[in-house]
Amino acid sequence: MPIPIVSIAQMRDWELATWATGRTEMEVIRRVGGEVAVAAMSLTRPGQRILVLAGKGNNGADVKNAGEVIRDREVEILEVPEPGVELTRLKTLLETRPNLVIDGLFGIGLNRALSQEWMALINAVNEAGCRVLAVDVPSGLNADTGESYGAVVRASVTLTVGAPKRGLLSSSAWSFVGRLEVASEVGLIPCPIQADLLWSLDTDFREYPPEREVSGHKGSFGHVAIFAGSPGYHGAAVLAARGAQRAQPGLVTLYAMEGVYHVVASQLQAVMVSPWQLSAKIPANRDAILIGPGLAADSLPDSVKLLTRALWRDALVPVVVDASALDWVPMERPRSNAVRVMSPHPGEAARLLRSTVQEVQANRVDAVRKISERYGNAWVILKGHQTVIGRHSGEVVVNSSGNPRLAQGGSGDLLAGYLAGLLAQPFSRANVLKALQFAVWRHGRAADQLNARKPGWVVEDLAEEMGNC
Fold first, then answer.
1. pTM (two decimals)
2. Which of 424, 454, 459 is CA-nearest to residue 439?
3. CA 335 remoteness from chain centre
4. Which CATH class is domain 218-465?
């Protein structure tokens, strides 16, 4: 199950509920320290140097515990009760270029502006340019709002304890938080907090998708129709088709405009490719439809826009709308109860809301809610860092996987195809949000696996890797 994204007050209540059961703070500190040690070792190699910065509170206790159990690395623990006293020593240690700095100066309890001495110490850490692992929250950051208390440690990775704190997801905090990871198994009781805003975990998908029936056949797993590709943008159609294939529906048919039909068909084997006659009827007996990838608006007749509107209003099966076709979706509720999905990036979301990218990024959850409300309570996948999945009401899930190298042309086309491929299959109807959540997570997870193995990967590699995670 995804875990709630919590406030500081909710985190404190959770801790108090844990202590009330007889579990002790020291037990949790020990387990947090173990998780920090594992994270630190994953970010370094044997023999490399790690500098641990420990403040006075529980955050400092967490990292001191970690420093004592890290193996096969050179670890130095610098306790920092007073910044003015330790600044010179810190600068000397940073000049030796440790391979990793673990930030345990302040936790979520910080609630006041920092002194000049603390700001000088934090700035010294940032100016050194070392890789930083922040524990729970980058020191100096308000964990509720994502605002600075004067200076903030700039982390490469933040390992937050128990559950993500709201401020860590603020766009103003992204450059300090880096990659957000969660130490969810640290001895706290199961989270008692009920919330609509949730964070996905890798463990959410241990038995998902479900096993297929041994007697299944092509007809058991759905038929996807994809309307994609126009002159100059034929690659988007190919990538969307390959994304759909990775979800393993029974059949995929790609409808390509005559001007790109031959070049698209020559790149696909198992996918059926048909010339797209604009006057033709919408094909029957399809289980999900994708429209949008590679449909360049400046080269298309109005009939393409009319088709998008007709599919949105009338199709009795799930419809995924992406890219240029997002601008052609009518602001009305579909006539059927079939699933509708929109997958904008922030620029497209801004157009849909007649807003700006800055306003969308300032409150991504609110942007998802508003787009969904405007377009008939459709499911919305707002792509980008920490992709947000949800609709006007109910749960919203923030995705935990992925990295900046997903920002390549064609990445979204691949995801759109994968979404349609999943939604064509019967199991997805039992829990649409989980199917969407899984598609986004797997797309990002494949990128993370590629990053670990060959950082120079391209989107064609991503299409291959999505079959390996």
1. 0.95
2. 424
3. 31
4. alpha beta
